[in-house]
Design a protein that fits this description.
- The protein is of the alpha/beta class.
- It contains 18 helices and 12 strands.
- Helix 5 crosses helix 6 and helix 11 packs across helix 12.
- The protein is globular, with a radius of gyration of 23 Å.
């Protein structure tokens, strides 16, 4: 499913981590400035993680309320002001926020209030050509936008309870009831359409700028979607649900490197037989939509296309789950037939990785190698196939500095003996004293045979565990990190450029 990959490198950075004046990274000046920084560092790939709206209180982009919609919190308020939909005084009272953390309890209400003002002004202030562009956007995206807008309206109407608690027949997405609701609440429903237009208009402008600078975007697609999402509500027959819409089983994973009791992801499981009967229509639309936004797609938990860990719906950990088979080969054959050859990267980590290997080889899809997870077993992590994508770490790992200095019992399941042995191997392979472990690991990744090397920005900045983005199996303190642009100094940029050039990747 891949097109040929050149030897290149890039940076992993969630859009919410960008700098900016209004509490969270967005599609405004900070994003354009970072694209400029990418070119100065010789980096040609920007992996952004999912840009969909998180459904939960925990702001996880891998659990979204829509697999198609954009996260409205990423809409640049400055751009809306420039476009005439916000005024200077609207932004004057925005609350003071930390520069290095997203304070969601402040950011969410403040941004949503301003977005509502912009939405209300849009029909009155938008020029005729913009209104035409908006109408075209609604028509072109009606296959997902109408139901998502209805979902958001009903979510508001029912005060944000799970859709299984809505009244019938709306709970079951009855077409007649939906049409009546559209007729009665057109204005409210149209607000979501306007917000999505704002997002996609700004995204397209940023994407065009990145293209002009030679920077390609890698978009992430989580294999699962949230139960409380427009996708599940509107396509209940495609998931393993009971008659009331509740999950009968849920997603998760067995005990692993991160969590000894396994993990509960709490997503509904696909009814793959139903998907096959539709010719994988939903998947074609989902992945095709993302390819309209980005240059490459990284499929999170690709192993789940081969086999997946199915856990009883009421369980609180992953211990009682069991492996189930998925029709990955049929799905990929269909995607190629419908979408053509497109660049795909696969997150193939975990116990099921060996099972996914034949599928990756058949379709020429590169898998991942994470350096932090490659030591301790006597192997040299630099000895990898060129078709791999190598990372120093991912959004689920500690920063490299944090990982190297974390001891037993500090978010590290290894014994002190095991850690000491692993660290010795690290230093031996790197020929290092560990004083600049992040640069040693970056060089190892860049010098490796892997066609693509991706470095989290935290590692380039040499940050410790306080800059960790996500700790699997935990909630409440994840997805908050932002970077201070002052830390990305000219010296750091030049150092990365030189290493990249020497490795033949710039």
């Amino acid at each position: 499913m891949h097109s040929e990959l050149n030897r290149q490198s890039g940076i992993l950075l969630h859009l919410t981590s960008l700098p900016g004046p209004h509490g969270i990274g967005d599609l405004g000046r900070g994003a354009y400035s970072f694209v400029d920084s990418m070119t100065e560092m010789g980096q040609r790939l920007l992996q952004i993680l999912p840009a969909n709206p998180p459904e939960s209180l925990y702001h996880c982009p891998y659990s979204a309320s829509s697999a198609f919609a954009g996260n409205s919190l990423l809409i640049s308020l400055e751009t809306l002001q420039k476009d005439g939909f916000l005024e200077d005084r609207d932004l004057a009272d925005f609350p003071q926020c930390k520069k290095d953390r997203v304070e969601f309890d402040k950011v969410n209400p403040a941004r949503r209030a301003l977005l509502q003002k912009a939405v209300d002004r849009f029909p009155k202030k938008a020029p005729a050509d913009i209104l035409t562009e908006f109408n075209d956007f609604c028509i072109q995206n009606r296959n997902w936008l109408d139901l998502y807008a209805m979902y958001c309206h009903l979510d508001e109407k029912y005060k944000h309870v799970n859709w299984t608690q809505w009244s019938e027949p709306l709970r079951f997405c009855d077409p007649k009831a939906i049409q009546e609701e559209f007729t009665q609440h057109q204005q409210e429903i149209n607000r979501t359409r306007i917000l999505q237009y704002f997002f996609y208009h700004q995204w397209q402008n940023l994407k065009e700028y990145a293209d002009s600078q030679g920077v390609s975007i890698i978009g992430d697609i989580p294999i699962y979607v949230a139960h409380d999402s427009a996708d599940v509500w509107a396509n209940q027959g495609l998931f393993k649900l009971d008659e009331a819409g509740h999950m009968t089983v849920q997603s998760g994973c067995p005990p692993d490197f991160f969590v000894k009791t396994g993990q509960i992801w709490a997503h509904p499981i696909y009814d793959w037989l139903k998907h096959e009967k539709t010719g994988f229509k939903w998947w074609i639309e989902r992945i095709g939509h993302l390819y309209e936004m980005v240059d490459m797609v990284r499929i999170d938990h690709f192993n789940g296309f081969v086999k997946y860990w199915e856990v009883p719906a009421m369980d609180k950990n992953g211990l009682n789950g069991f492996w189930m088979q998925a029709p990955g080969e049929k799905l990929l054959d269909t995607l190629i037939k419908e979408l053509g050859t497109q660049p795909i990267l696969a997150e193939n980590l975990g116990e099921a990785a060996p099972d996914a290997e034949p599928l990756l080889k058949k379709f020429g899809i590169p898998g991942m190698k994470v350096l932090q997870m490659s030591f301790g077993n006597g192997d040299n992590p630099a000895e990898m196939d060129s078709s791999n994508v190598v990372y120093t770490g991912t959004h689920d790992n500690d920063t490299t500095v944090g990982w190297f200095h974390t001891g037993a019992g500090q978010a590290n399941r290894q014994t002190k003996t095991g850690i000491d042995r692993e660290r010795k191997q690290v230093l031996d392979i790197l020929g290092s004293d560990g004083s600049e472990i992040h640069w040693d690991m970056i060089k190892l990744a860049l010098d490796s045979p892997a066609d693509i090397a991706i470095i989290p920005l935290q590692d380039i900045l040499g940050l410790d565990s306080r800059a960790r983005m996500n700790t699997p199996g935990t909630v409440g303190q994840n997805w908050m990190w932002r970077f201070d642009p002052d830390l990305l100094t000219p010296d750091l940029k030049e150092r990365l450029l030189n290493l990249t050039t020497a490795a033949g990747r710039s």
